[in-house]
């Protein structure tokens, strides 16, 4: 009979699994919305949301308004988010690292008549 050495990996795996369960799940629907308005005078806007859902809406306005719902859960890790408009590219980033869970969604209101791209591809606007 061969005796195997006991490993601490099983215990570590159980601890990590327990932390993930205790952390819960993030849900953007539960988040308090934040918004930011960007001055915009261009004719074309490329919205890059890096995989997060983004509703693109034509609106009677001269600027670009972004509303973000960002929720995090978990105590171990960090959240990073940014939103910038530079040279006709609207970068929307939100995510977590470590043992944290994040959920994000956006609504982008764009002036009527502006051509909008989603991650470099033509797309349709609602509204």
Task: Describe this protein's structure.
With 127 residues, the protein is mainly beta. It has one domain. 12% of the residues lie in helices and 54% in strands. The chain contains one helix and seven strands, in the order H-E-E-E-E-E-E-E. The protein has one helix at residues 9-23, and strands at residues 34-38, 44-48, 54-59, 64-86, 89-111, 115-118, 121-122. Strands 1, 2, 3, 4, 5, 6 and 7 form a seven-stranded mixed β-sheet that branches. Strand 6 and strand 7 (121-122) form a beta hairpin. The model is unreliable at 9-23 (pLDDT under 50).
Short description:
This protein has one domain (25-122). Helix content is 12%, strand content 54%.
Give the biggest sheet.
Answer: 7 strands, mixed
Terminal Cα span? 73 Å
| String of helices and strands | HEEEEEEE
- Tell me the strand percentage band: over 45%
Mean pLDDT: 80
Which residue ranges are poorly predicted, with pLDDT under 50 across at least 5 consecutive positions?
A: 9-23
Structural class: mainly beta
Alpha plus pi helix count: 1
Proportion in helices:
10-25%
Specify the overall morphology: elongated
- Count of DSSP strands: 7
Number of structural domains: 1
Spatial extent as radius of gyration? 21 Å
Strands, helices and their partners?
Elements: H1 9-23, E1 34-38, E2 44-48, E3 54-59, E4 64-86, E5 89-111, E6 115-118, E7 121-122
Parallel strand pairs: 2-5, 2-6, 3-5
Antiparallel strand pairs: 1-4, 4-5, 6-7
